[in-house]
Amino acid sequence: MRAHLGDQLVIESTKSGAARRDGEIVGLHHADGTPPYDVRWSDTDEVALVFPGPDARVRHLEHGGPETVHGTASPDTGDAKAAAPSGPTAVSAGPGDIGRRVAVERRRQGLGLEETARLAHMSPGYLSYIEERPADPSTAALIRLADALGTTATALRGAGVDLPPGQGHALLRPRFQDLGPDQCRALLSTHGVGRLAVTAPDGRPAVVPVNYEVVDDTIAFRTAPDSLPAAAVGTEVAFEVDHVDDALSQGWSVLAVGPASVTTDPAAVRELTARAHTTPWPGGDRGMWVSIRPTSLTGRRITAADR
User: Fold this and answer.
1) What spatial distance separates the first Cα and last Cα of the chain, rounded to whole Å?
2) Beta-strand relationship, 68-69 and 205-215
3) What is the 3-state secondary structure (H, E, C) of 5-58?
4) The pLDDT of residue 228 is above 90
5) Contact at 8 Å (CB) between 168 and 155?
6) Cα 209 to Cα 110: distance, rounded to the nearest angstrom
7) Interior CA angle at 77 toward 139 and 98, to 5°?
8) Most buried by CB count within 10 Å: which residue of 152, 166, 172, 293?
């Protein structure tokens, strides 16, 4: 019998009338995927060390492979050799969407792999597997991960990406809090995606999202000279960043107001480019750096009154 992290162990009891039991394999003790396994049982959500007996089989849920029953292939799936995957370290596969979201959220929260695994009540090896492979964790595992990362299982699955944020119900007892400049700077962080409010060349107001960097209290973004964001140069603009938690009906927003200018000094351009965390998501040739030096920095946060 061989298994990967994330496979399902199914126990079909040989005792008459005994209940069938299954669980998720969350820990391996041998690199080749042979028993024993750390199994999180679906009925109790508890992890136990399991030495599978003759009534056990493995369902390779994550890898699309055949079931193995006590070390051999099931009768309708071929021979034992075909049923034995080569172990998790030998499979070449990139991370799935869930794994990428988990890794990004974990780093955003400043959490290490082992700390996150502890908070989510799973083995570090299984968390590493989720982040590095195209895994599909169980609902229970995903909920624990979301709770550890301060987000929702829905967000980790990527559901609702085509819906605007803020569709949750309003809090019964909301707390509205004004944020000071230092709190606003902390929420701006070092980079992200914000919204730039500018006046278009035709005189109409416009709001466009841009990837931004924060360098020495200055907000900077890259764009093309003939683009709408480039219209900000030489004017006073508003720049807004926010985050909404639909599950908890709470969130925050930060508004920076100040003059925008184009950065022309070659050394300054090289430094900005070298320090940039990401390239502009729209792609293309966007080598023009525009900087906003805030003269006003304000923010607001909405939370439950008892928090």
Assistant:
1) 50
2) unpaired
3) CCCEEEECCCCCCCCCEEEEEEEECCCCCCCCEEEEECCCCCEEEECCCCCEEE
4) yes
5) no
6) 25
7) 25
8) 152
The Cα diameter of the chain in Å comes to 82
Contact 306, 232 (CB under 8 A): no
Region 93-110: mean pLDDT is 81
Whether 290 contacts 223, CB under 8 Å: yes
Which residue matches tokens 């299984």?
Answer: 126
Residue 185: both structure tokens together: 């700077």
pLDDT at residue 86 tops 50: no
Q: What whole-number percentage of the chain has pLDDT above 70? A: 85
Residue with tokens 């569709």: 167
Segment (H or E) for 199: strand 191-199
pLDDT at 37 over 70: yes
pLDDT in tens, 236-253: 999 999 998 776 788 999
Contact in structure between 208 and 198 (CB atoms under 8 Å):
yes
- What pTM did the predictor assign? 0.59
Alpha helices in 133-278 (DSSP H): 139-149, 153-157, 181-188, 266-275
240 within 8 A of 255, measured Cβ to Cβ:
yes
From CA 207, how far away is CA 239, in angstroms rounded?
Answer: 9
CA distances from 3 to 75, 158, 194, 233, 280 (A): 18, 28, 44, 59, 41
Q: For residue 210, which phi and psi values (nearest 5 degrees)? A: -140, 150
Answer whether the bond into residue 52 is a cis peptide, omega within 30°: no
